[in-house]
Amino acid sequence: MTTFAFDHVGLSVADLDAQRRFYADALGLTEVEEELAMAEAGVRTTILRAPSGLKIELIERGCSTPQEFADPFDGAGTQGYFHWAEIER
User: What are the pLDDT digits (tens) for 30-59?
Assistant: First the structure.
């Protein structure tokens, strides 16, 4: 029987470098597990890891558009994050 385990969550961000600093300070995500850059597509990604094993993938894509809400409860009514990744065990 195949089982799966949570690996990481992916977040779309406007500024990869700023978000790397934020998650390092806020959650201790300082180890870079993987990085990818596709200049022709305007995409940069990195997977960050904390000593606890927590991982987040940050994906920056040029010309992406932010979601802005007048009220925080409006934002809670919008579905979405980039992805949730699992690994097969």
Answer: 989 899 999 999 999 999 999 988 899 999
CA distance linking residue 66 with residue 14, whole number of Å: 8
DSSP code, position 71: S
* N-to-C CA span, the chain: 10
Q: Which two tokens stand for residue 86?
A: 């699992």
Which pTM was predicted? Answer: 0.74
Strands 83-88 and 43-49: unpaired
User: Structural domain boundaries of the chain?
Assistant: 4-64+71-88
Give the C-alpha separation, 62 to 72, whole Å: 26
Q: Which CATH class is domain 4-64+71-88?
A: alpha beta
